Amino acid sequence: MSFNCDVHTPLYTVAGGRPYNKAGLKEWAGLAVLALPTMLLGLDVTILYLALPALAVELQPSSTQALWIMDAYGFMIAGFLITMGTLGDRIGRRRLLMMGASAFAVASVFAAYAPNAEWLIVARAALGIAGATLMPSTLALISNMFFDLHQRALAIGIWATMFALGMALGPVVGGLLLAPFWWGAAFLIAVPIVIILLLTAPLLLPEYRNPQAGRLDLLSVLLLLIAILPSIYAIKEFSKAGLTPLVLVTLALGVVGTLFFVRRQKQLLDPLLDLKLFASKTFTAALFILLIGLVGVAGMMFLVTQYLQLVAGYTPLIAGLWMGPPALMMVLAGILAPIFARRIRPAFVIALALMLSSIGCGFLAQVDPLSVQVLQVVIGFSLVYLGLGTIAALGTDLVVGSAPPEKTGSASSMSEMVQELGVALGVALLGSMATLLYRVQIAGVIPDGVPDDVSRALGESLWATTSVAERLPDGILEQAQSAFTQGMNMAAAVSGATLLALALISAVTLRHVKAVGKESD
């Protein structure tokens, strides 16, 4: 490992007597550099939420294509994160970070100028593969820069906050860019960020590679993709069409891929994913909380951003600005949660935050379908974001901190995989749930004599209905908006119940973890 600490910082020792230097100015400046790609990845998860109606008018995607435009990015990140985390341990984490950032910028340009929906889906998938190189590299490098437990917890909290902040600011930035520019400008923001990263990374970031790591097992990579991608596709299709033969086939393929992948890892001396990590109760419980928590929060984010634009009628800019207060709440939670966790056990900090998120979902579940209640929506979603900031900061620290140093890359990639998977599944499951109720509600009010293309738009989704609003009979748009709000109500109720149950699970499964800096029971 090649790593130079700041010579001006005092020398300390950790348990077992191994010396280390507390992080100095160079390390904190390096964290600021790592924050750039981290925020960029968060932005790309949600920046299209407000751009979707404008994109729909120009590219005319089908309902299925629209979901793939939103989901392809997160699904491909989830599919490749473990592979890229392990690859970084082999070729160098800083090197992989810079290579991936360059590829991300190129894919962003292709996405910005996509001439049709198919091109944009492919570009979003390429962005996901490139993004998979960035997440584990940034998080694993933090473990090479911050050895003091308090400093590391705060650094990971800031790192997680930057990713969550990127997710929260995605609609805001998208709204600001859509006002003077076209929807493709939402992707071009990656280019200047990547240029800054490439110029500063060699100066401020250490390099790390595991000299004992073996060759990357390509068969494991293939089996992992077979395990993850068909499973995700099966979940998406089930949420839309029910238990069809296609769902059964793809789900079976995913299960078979998972079984063969696990078997392969047990046979390898240097596996792609060290399954021994799951022997840690802290590691496993924190991953579960991250996954389920992100499902609930991300699904509601997708619906709330649509509500502000399609029901409240705000422009992308104004709708994005309304997302500012929730973003602020999330930032405060991400920074303050590690500080509270120095005195209070992380289990109870996480549980309290998730309970507040559940209350926020209760506000969203009671929004009146017959009137616009923006303030109630924003207050409710601000509470939801408290949970996001907390679990992103403390959950990630628990995952990385429970792994041995040589497995940090693998643990980091697992943490990021479940978060990206949670975001993608949240959009797919809660979005599809809301869409299903919308279709049931709107089916009975489509009047006779409406042109076929208008009728199809009405039956698909509210964003499709909005694209043909000038051709709708009087009162139909209002009924479609009411149907969408009812779908959001139901999704919020499900999400709230899930987050409340997750709070109880956190209090039970993580109660053995003491406050940060103290040994666990």
Would you write up a description of this structure?
With 521 residues, this protein is mainly alpha-helical. Helices cover 75% and strands 1% of the residues. The protein has helices spanning 25-46, 52-59, 63-91, 93-112, 117-145, 149-178, 185-188, 190-204, 218-241, 245-267, 281-311, 316-322, 324-340, 346-365, 374-401, 408-443, 452-460, 462-467, 476-509; strands at residues 11-13, 19-21. The chain has a two-stranded antiparallel sheet.
Concise description?
With 521 residues, the chain is an all-alpha fold. The chain has helices spanning 25-46, 52-59, 63-91, 93-112, 117-145, 149-178, 185-188, 190-204, 218-241, 245-267, 281-311, 316-322, 324-340, 346-365, 374-401, 408-443, 452-460, 462-467, 476-509; strands at residues 11-13, 19-21.
Q: What assembly state would you assign to the polypeptide chains in this entry?
A: single chain
Specify the overall morphology.
globular
Radius of gyration: 23 Å
Mean pLDDT comes to: 81
Report the sheet with the most strands, covering strand number, pairing sense and barrel closure: 2 strands, antiparallel
What's the helix-strand series?
EEHHHHHHHHHHHHHHHHHHH
Spatial ordering of strands, largest sheet: 1-2
- The number of helices is 19
Beta-strand share of residues: under 5%
Give the N-terminus to C-terminus distance in angstroms: 32 Å
